[in-house]
Amino acid sequence: xxxxxxxxxxxxxxxxxxxxxxxxxxxxxxxxxxxxxxxxxxxxxxxxxxxxxxxxxxxxxxxxxxxxxxxxxxxxxxxxxxxxxxxxxxxxxxxxxxxxxxxxxxxxxxxxxxxxxxxxxxxxxxxxxxxxxxxxxxxxxxxxxxxxxxxxxxxxxxxxxxxxxxxxxxxxxxxxxxxxxxxxxxxxxxxxxxxxxxxxxxxxxxxxxxxxxxxxxxxxxxxxxxxxxxxxxxxxxxxxxxxxxxxxxxxxxxxxxxxxxxxxxxxxxxxxxxxxxxxxxxxxxxxxxxxxxxxxxxxxxxxxxxxxxxxxxxxxxxxxxxxxxxxxxxxxxxxxxxxxxxxxxxxxxxxxxxxxxxxxxxxxxxxxxxxxxxxxxxxxxxxxxxxxxxxxxxxxxxxxxxxxxxxxxxxxxxxxxxxxxxxxxxxxxxxxxxxxxxxxxxxxxxxxxxxxxxxxxxxxxxxxxxxxxxxxxxxxxxxxxxxxxxxxxxxxxxxxxxxxxxxxxxxxxxxxxxxxxxxxxxxxxxxxxxxxxxxxxxxxxxxxxxxxxxxxxxxxxxxxxxxxxxxxxxxxxxxxxxxxxxxxxxxxxxxxxxxxxxxxxxxxxxxxxxxxxxxxxxxxxxxxxxxxxxxxxxxxxxxxxxxxxxxxxxxxxxxxxxxxxxxxxxxxxxxxxxxxxxxxxxxxxxxxxxxxxxxxxxxxxxxxxxxxxxxxxxxxxxxxxxxxxxx
Length: 727
What we know:
Layout: H1 2-20, H2 34-37, H3 41-55, H4 63-66, H5 70-82, H6 91-94, H7 99-104, E1 111-120, E2 124-125, H8 126-135, E3 142-143, H9 152-155, E4 170-171, H10 189-194, H11 197-212, E5 225-230, H12 249-252, H13 255-266, E6 272-275, H14 281-295, E7 300-307, H15 313-320, E8 345-353, H16 354-359, E9 366-375, H17 387-401, E10 410-412, H18 421-433, E11 443-446, H19 449-452, H20 459-473, E12 475-476, E13 496-498, E14 503-504, E15 513-519, E16 524-531, E17 546-548, E18 552-554, E19 565-571, H21 574-589, H22 596-605, E20 612-618, H23 621-633, E21 640-644, H24 668-673, H25 675-692, H26 696-701, H27 716-726
Parallel strand pairs: 5-6, 5-7, 10-11, 10-15, 11-13
Antiparallel strand pairs: 1-2, 1-8, 1-9, 3-4, 7-8, 9-16, 12-14, 15-16, 17-18, 19-20, 20-21
């Protein structure tokens, strides 16, 4: 064995020396990486070809990046040719799953995603907005923003060697990133100006995610909820020194304050952590949040990431490295891949332990079944991806979920569109997921970066949101620019296929599952396994569902079965109230199947309540929408009542009138349309009748045989008992 390993090592060193024109194999010794020896992507392929011919075995074009030193590559080849060495550093040892991940397995507590808030290019706001964008195959890449002080004319130059310029002039931008309602969060205009737009955006998206979960953000004050935010840019304040924002720039530009500000504004007392592992930041944040929930450090967590580019520095830097696609588009895993395209975005998930989500009656959108994080270590260059490390993080995530590769249907890949990174990732996926799958059940692969660009610190959470929506709809969205898969990958080596068009989600007889990958140029890798929610938690429970015996959740019935319905709207100021009415009207109008009473229930029980308030009443959606239209236009309308809560808040008084306010038939109309009132009234009447021995309900409701007004309603016994039952 030892002689065979020495022979393999000699072949590797000799081939490396020959490719580089060195004096002999000894010149390639010394433990240096191939990059340090002078290899680039072209000479790496030439070395692969020489070794492939010498060994008589197939090797991926990325093998030099997977095994970044001659010694590591020789060890890999020896294991392939001679078989793995027990206890050695062969492929099996290199890909071993950490003991902690392996021991977690199926016994690990599941974490539920109960709410989502996001903003991505193309006007994609919320899960539905991003889903509409990806399922329709929309390309959301556009020109440089005009409100950030970038000189677009001077910035662009097609020459990749010209300093201070970018040869790409498009990306996936949040053109509305400068918009912010500072007053809503109690922030002064001066401080808001000094705040990095990433902090502003994170605040807004966290609020929206909680409301999406049916949780009033103001109700979390003082709770042990946590915040885990991926943020990688910290350069916003550089151009503000000496301006009116001085005094707020230190906190306004701090990445650490990004998570702390959310906790401060909402009054959260759990962990507040900002994560910067470059492009894997948001997935690492979700991984840490899940661990914190399982450890009991917090009972609810906000986790995700945000990226807004205050300067064009990243475009300039990657232009010098020739790492950008000239047209600004990520052609993930495609034969036409020619570099990455930068993008922006923000995405936040509301996470709870699954048992807590059930107990609290929260709708479960998906389950985080497993996750893992690792590092490339001493790879072939500081920012070069490493295939075996990616295989290891996938294996660890599967082990933490207690699953095998064939238990996952789809992977949302990192897929940046680079000519080196994508082939390395695809080969790792083929090795980790593409082996031993049932015939005809390939792993489907895609990347949301083909739609919105590389959203960097928000890229991983964008992939999670896409997969959560895809599992819910039962559709795998298309990956753009991917009609021809890259020829740099041997796709025949395993069952992995590129989803170039929309596909139905495979029916397997088990829950749908998806993996999501993010690999930072910091070398930190993350992989998360998402699973379709268990039966009975994916929206079958009505918002506002009530607890029953601790764990089982029963849906609450509608407050009104028919008749007049009330829709409640509130905001911080009159203009915001009108805008909120307009948004609600637009949202309801686009969904003709919505029940007016269901909308009323959600508005009353799952939304925050502010000082400026309005109530719109009507007997159907047409009347209600007409009232909303009047409110949005600032005009009077039938069924519309507006008001303002006085400083210090309003107090509610309950008036219980005495005898003299009774009448035959009182409460009959309400009982006919409100199941909740009917149940309470019937229970009260039953208790009274058991004590008094008189038919209280008959008198109150006017159900006297033969019709006509029941004179007993004015007699003291009936009047007092009837009023008590109704009130």
